Hints:
Strand content: 5-15%
Bound molecules: iron/sulfur cluster, zinc ion
Largest sheet: 7 strands, mixed
Oligomer: single chain
Number of strands: 7
Shape: globular
Structural class: alpha+beta
Number of helices: 18
Amino acid sequence: MSKLRAAAGSGRGLPQGAGEVRRPPRRCRESPSSQKDMPPSVSAQQSAYHLFSRPAEIKAFRKNLLAWYDRCKRDLPWRNLAASEPDANRRAYAVWVSEIMLQQTQVATVIDYYNRWMQKWPTLQALAGASLEDVNELWAGLGYYSRGKRLQEAARKVVSELGGQMPRTAEELQKLLPGVGRYTAGAIASISHGQATGVVDGNVIRVLCRVRCIGADSSSPAVTNRLWDLANALVDPARPGDFNQAVMELGATVCSPRAPLCTECPVKPHCRARGRVEKELEFASKRLLGKAAPKGSPVPDVEECAAGSCSLCLPASEPWDSSLGVANFPRRAARKQPRAERAATCVLERGGHPGEPEYLIVQRPSSGLLAGLWEFPSLPLGPGLKEKQQREALLGHVQAWAGEAVARGCLRLVGETYVVYSLLLGGGAGAASSRRDGEPGRPACRWVTQAEFQKSAVSTAMKKVWKACERQSGEGRGPSKGRKRGPDALHAGQLKVDAASSLPRRQLSLHAFLTAPAGE
Length: 520
Ligand code: SF4
Ligand code: ZN
């Protein structure tokens, strides 16, 4: 029985420094002119600080960034395809697949999936002709499974309704293709069609918030809109696809969340957050030499926002923290606590035809979470169920699949965080539950061998369950290996996955657990 709980709340995502000089909460510092002299257009002053307003600086930013990208970019299969594929539809498709796979998933994990996908379905037409089962099978382990399904649905739409022609602009891509949002549309249009349109993803947000010291909640609609404005203003019209990839590459490899490599950064001269850190370092070293005001004095010559009240600056309640440096940006509002959910899973095993064990997997509904994937019989558990009630509920559920009575004592709960049960049936392939396959009103189910299970469209969660079974058996094989079968031909195996196991120690919400991408 797996007991899955919510992840601990992450607050605003930035630790508070300890023991550092903290300035009192402040509003943006006033401009050198007094407030009464302030021009009526405060937003113009905001722009000067949080935006790129000088064409020469924009030009220099592009030049520095692209030169670095040409030198340092990673060699990735979708980049090679985008650069070498002469057919516009194939090129757009290749970029599209990569962008969907890369959502919420690390590059290193995606590469292998991408190569296999493009080998199997090199064109929109090939993908449109595939079955959802095949799509799910290839996607298995990549997480966030609805992405693959939506990608295929959209490919079918392009083939059947758009004559196989991918829309050429970001606006059309977003409007016409299901599952393609503003970011993906901008990425496809700029990379494969050369449209001069910016993109904003997590990496871009981090870079832009740092270079322009945008400290307001970066997930708020107002800040998001300003970031899109910035991205659109910065994108290089001569090389929009490369420029967008370069900003994202910078965020992924140099301007990382916790340990940015500012000294190696090609846009360091344009980065206001870095500028502030350098001023502070300079001031600290002067102070050490006794050439500056004592600790706690304001750092001189720090460039700051000129607006008296600014919706893009760090909030007054959480001002610049010297211990964080450039990681003061970006900031996000505290996330809501995920819901706590619990579920029970049971690995049902029986002797197969040539003596090889088989395991029952059941297909999930064709819509909703993990649509169409296969899983071991699982049961969501209501809140506050005591162990005895959980056992009753699981037993009833498993019994329906086993096709025979299962003794209550066969199931044993072990561990607290995430526990899986297994149940070995004694009747062999002819005896149990294949009669339920295809029964009206019941989900599809099938018995599979270990090898078949590994090839099936099962979620990462179920693969973890399998691994847990293997670890429990201690032989790196199926769930019951190494255990004796009971004389009554019905045996409950016990699996324990707790804080001492190699499964994730953090507690996850059911959704997070079931959709966690491989390698993340
Ligand atoms: Fe990021 Fe540092 Fe470069 Fe600024 S200088 S963009 S903070 S890596
Ligand atoms: Zn400001």
